[in-house]
Specification:
Shape: globular
Distance between the termini: 29 Å
Number of strands: 11
Largest sheet: 11 strands, mixed
Low-confidence stretches: none
Amino acid sequence: MTIETLDGPPTLGVLYGRALLTARSGGSSLPDRRLDLPGVRIDASLVADYDHVCGFSVGGVVPPTYPHMLAFPLQMRLMTDREFPLPAPGMVHLRNVITQHRPPEVGEPLRVAVHADHLAAHPKGAQVDLVTAVTDADDVEIWGSRSTYFVRGAPAPDGEPSAPPEPDPQVGRLPHAVWRIPGDIGRRYAAVSGDVNPIHVNGLAAKAFGMPGTIAHGMWTKARVLAALAGRHSPAFTADVVFKAPVRAPSKVYLHTAEADGGWDARLVSPKGKDHLLLTLREA
């Protein structure tokens, strides 16, 4: 695999514009290339802003979902390359699995590496995984993730994806929290993450891509659930999430949680009982 070392993080706003220009291009296979971004240092003030938006305690450890924001520009850089086999516009985040060995520390030098993996057929199109590894100054991986993205109607190699079984959280009938999702959560999360995908910030654009209106970022919903579980598990764990029905903004959702063997289960549900998010967290 070829390694391309970047001098700095790509700009997401530019990449979303590039996505529109490359929507009809693309190769037949995934690029055999890994993007590396060395010398990344997490800024305490930016973490505080993220904490406020996602519900984490300000001044605590770096949230386990925060490194995704460091990786997402690299993911978009790969997905908007002309040889990438799937179009970036309309791409939907289906699943995200985070394995944290230890939380990254504010100010420590990190290397973020991203590559694409496992282009596969989906019953309604095609899907692909973007794999991230965050390593410390000793080149030890401290955090990793696998994000699965789906494109409706896109062609892909024959065969169903060989992904592990989806999370099956076992929770009680009564919710443990009722959250009112503000109408501006897409814009607020975009401001701290740089993820200005139109489906989260513009109602007309969201409807053009088949959404009911502006929707919350999937990684915001995962962060919000993990914030609710903060302090209830060890620093080393795997959190597996499947994103189901989009969370409209504004809306109301119910959080169900239950302590499970070696961790926690959680489910985010609409007032009509429709699943928005399924989560299992297991300690290492």
